[in-house]
Amino acid sequence: MANARESELHYPLGETLPQAGEALDLAPGLRWVRMGLPFALDHINLWLLRDRIDGVDGWTIVDCGIASDATRDNWETVFASRLDGLPVLRVMATHFHPDHLGLAHWLTERWACRLWMSATDFNLARLASSSTVGMGGASAAAFFGSHGLTDEDSLQKIRERADYYPKMVPVVPTAFRRLMDGMAVDIGGRTWRCIAGYGHAPEHISLFCEAGKLLISGDMVLPRISTNVSVVDVEPEADPLNLYLQSLTRYLDLPAATLVLPSHGKPFTGLHQRIDQLQAHHDDRFAEVMAACRTAPTHAAGLLPVLFKRKLDLHQTTFAMGESIAHLNALWLKGALTRELGADGVYRFSAA
Fold first, then answer.
1. pTM here?
2. By C-alpha distance, which of 172, 169, 34 is closest to 98?
3. Are 83 and 72 in contact (CB under 8 A)?
4. What is the dihedral of CA 134, 139, 141, 144, to 10 degrees?
5. DSSP letter string over 298-309?
6. Which residues are in the Metallo-beta-lactamase domain (predicted)?
7. How far apart, in whole angstroms, are the C-alpha atoms of residue 227 and residue 230?
């Protein structure tokens, strides 16, 4: 959902964006790459960090883009013109989602280097690349059906999306190096601290550099939109939203002047303000959900017009369903709502 309080944030680069196949210098040893995506959210930000490993000078790539010819071509243009003649020494992924991990196998093969990421997300990616997780296939359709999505055309399209993840992440590297919360990683003589976040992905890793006051936030903190936090079929009673909101507090001790490097949108300052905005946003959504459930027993599909005021395409509807269920589960699991399974096989929630 768009950020109505965006004016509280500051964008140091204004409207400047790197064009496809370019890398924009943000600070010494830090370059910003931007790749296209075939969704309404039409881009992802990727980062180049100057590095030195085992006595060899080069670069670390943070996040990869989806597996597509266009993304590969843009990377090749970057390699030819913006690596200063140096190799890529490692690839880091903040989490397992396709826009972040899709080309990890190609990049690590291309440069004979290692993938670094959390173990939880690495192993889930290995599973998902051979099937799917959450947003496509028969299990996902049945799960969304149990939460009130009854439009047969939409359900059939979800069933047919069993290749949703494998199409964008066809292969995951067979080996990796584990990133963990609190771990200090030396990248080019600068220390970057890993901050694990939960809810958006199982074990998302952001990277903070105290010396440069830089935060590669991945998808945990975005300036213009609220991060998607979904319940999916593989963990139907999960409470990812409370995990996400608890994770946001981990960033509150970072300096106010921190430059946030998000995966979507533009680099910004105002981290503490943005966390406050995100917490307030979900407080408002919780209030809307409670009001609806006080009126009548309500299922997740019935909440879509309440939580999302715009028209949704199928891709957006799957994420919206996951997020609607996340709000319901959070309130149900803390006892504010009760849940009943109807004779029609649909879960409905009421105020306790």
1. 0.96
2. 169
3. no
4. -70
5. B-HHHHHHHH--
6. 43-264
7. 10
- Please give, one letter per residue, the 3-state secondary structure of 223-239: CCECCCCCCCCCCCCCC
Tens digit of each residue's pLDDT (9 = 90 or more) over 68-111: 999 999 999 999 999 999 999 999 999 999 999 999 999 999 99
CA atoms within 13 A of residue 342's CA, in its CB half-sphere: 13
CA nearest neighbour of 62 among 202, 170, 215, 203? 215
Q: Which residues contact 34 (CB under 8 A, 6 or more apart)?
A: 17, 18, 19, 20, 43, 44, 45, 46
Strands 88-92 and 114-117, bridge-based pairing: parallel
**75: its two tokens:** 């990377």
Question: Distance between CA 222 and CA 95 in Å, rounded?
Answer: 15
The domain over range 6-131+158-295 is classified in CATH as 1.10.8.60:
no
Q: Is pLDDT of 226 > 70?
A: yes
Which of 105, 38, 23 shows the shortest CA–CA distance to 70?
Answer: 38
Residue 110 main-chain phi, psi, to 5 deg: -60, -35
pLDDT of residue 4: 76
CA-based nearest residue to 315, from 63, 121, 44, 42: 42
DSSP per residue, 257-307: TPEEEESSS--BB-HHHHHHHHHHHHHHHHHHHHHHHHHS-B-HHHHHHHH
pLDDT tens-digit profile of 228-281?
A: 999 999 999 999 999 999 999 999 999 999 999 999 999 999 999 999 999 999
* Amino acid identity at 346: V
pLDDT reading at 1 higher than 70: no
Write down the pLDDT at residue 201. Answer: 97
Q: Tokens 């309404």 belong to which residue?
A: 40
Contact (Cβ atoms closer than 8 angstroms) between residue 219 and residue 240 = no
Size (the chain), residues: 352
Across the beta sheet with 184-187, the strand order is 184-187, 190-197, 204-209, 214-218, 259-262
